[in-house]
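Bug #77: duplicate submission created two jobs. Keeping one. Sequence:
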Amino acid sequence: MAEKESAGQELSIEEAFEKLEGIIGALEDGEISLEDSFSYYETGMRLVKQCGEKIDRVEKKILVLEDSESEG
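Kept job's structure:
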């Protein structure tokens, strides 16, 4: 997979979306084996989870900022 992932570094949301687009394209192409399809699917789901977690963290930060602005 990516050098960042193998080195333990998390991908940015943009990088993850780019990889997801590539995975979707490969799956839609239909030229890969069933075994490879499962591997792509697993990688894609991992990326979706990672993106969801990042978005949740950003939403929490925004809520904290909004609360502190409304109090101040």
